[in-house]
Amino acid sequence: MAKQNVAEQFVDILVRAGVQRLYGVVGDSLNPVVDAVRRTAAIEWIQVRHEETAAFAAGAEAQITGRLAACAGSCGPGNLHLINGLYDAHRSMASVLALASHIPSSEIGLGYFQETHPDHLFRECSHYCEMISSPQQMPRLLQSAIQHAIGRSGVSVVSMPGDIADRPAPEKTIEHALVTTRPTVRPGDTELDRLVAMIDEADRVTLFCGSGTAGAHAEVMQFAERIKSPVGHALRGKEWIQYDNPYDVGMSGLLGYGAAYEATHECDLLILLGTDFPYNAFLPDDVKIAQIDVRPEHLGRRSKLDLAVWGDVRETLRCLIPRVRAKTSRRFLDKMLKKHADALEGVVKAYTRKVEKHVPIHPEYVASVVDELADEDAVFTVDTGMCNVWAARYLTPNGRRRIIGSFSHGSMANALPQAIGAQFTDRRRQVVSLSGDGGFTMLMGDFLTLVQYDLPVKIVLFNNSSLGMVELEMLVAGLPSFGTANHNPDFAAVARAAGAYGVRVEKPKQLAGALKDAFRHKGPALVDVVTDPNALSIPPKIRAEMVTGFALSASKIVLDGGVGRMLQMARSNLRNVPRP
Questions:
Q1: Which pLDDT score is estimated for 552?
Q2: Would you give the DSSP letter of residue 356?
């Protein structure tokens, strides 16, 4: 039996860690590893057109599966292209291992062709970033990188010169059992006792939930019922907490809707559950705040805390529920539910008026029809910008759907690459990319990846021929829009020329039929929807300090939102409110 080289050993360890595919672009320094993948049946090489796509795809795969995913780039410019997608994965707490291959080891530090220093460049977007400088070092270093990525839920980067990858692996190496799952964390009794006392003393408690509530829906609902608390959420908490929620008061923040803002400001005690909500201008400064988070570095970095609790949300609530005294008064909860329903009733009228006749098409109408027609277990990937607004307000979670975007990093061009990673996890599951024309064209080359692998991703392109969110930012600053117009082709024709299904929609009455046909199509499909560039959106509460660096507008044509099927939920929840 031929002796393994380092590249083969590298790939074997990835397989042991559960990695099923490696996204990347081939290149000379990476060739030994790619060849090892070619000869290993348990792992697949996914050829993309841009390394940024590789990192975004790996991050999406990790978020969908909860397992380690991997990407790779060749030396210098190749692995540099990974950095934006790795930043996004890291800030999304996605477990990703990135291989940044390097120039020949004998040339490092001598200004060689394509020389960079990846072990320095990627430090800010990773928990672990080291270079393999000898074959003897590789197994332990890679194992440490894997355990950092999984154990701390983020990115690890391993840099390896191509000549090291091609050398024989040492005969006796230390390989230990790999940690591939994370434990739950329970707070100490002292913190639990203090939190119980705060809850029992408060008359009005509000829960505000983020992505850390994943897997804790039942516990949040049980806890809310016990303390009669309204439940609001951040955008990353929407998919985990909004569905089957009789205590729902909507979402706070610049994309917000409903009564979440009021509920967080009119309570005696606000409990932040697994959220790293970045906009502290939307958080109160005159109520008591407790925060529960499994990441201790997140505690207190957005607001002044009266109590910080280090723990997994689900385990913490399981400890709290039997300890807290059940509250009997629903006065505050019912007041917030009524405010929430009233707020949604008002904004719904703004977008429903003659919407089926409006040309160019209202983007809100597009999002609402997509929501109605998409599968009950669909995965939605959402471009940064106005697509975030439409997704936040119109996509209806149900416990089976997933909504993935660049919600913490805020990168353009994320939706198509993330759809690639999501679709590779299950070709039978519907994956819908809500793409803006700006984001789509930035990495449009990887539309060819869909065609090459016959991935049945459905792209719904919100084509308003502009960078809509940037235009809003300029309006806020009192500036005329400049440099935001896009001169676009017929994207449906481009899709057809590439070998995919493509259809262009310019009138509302064409929309439902076009989406149904695209969703039924077996392979990749693109629906190019010409949407109204003047359709803007504002959050429910605005103060001067909230507008910095974001899109708020007082334009002549401003829609206050629209909320799709969320109004039905709010109306249903009102049935629980006693009538006078």
A1: 34
A2: G
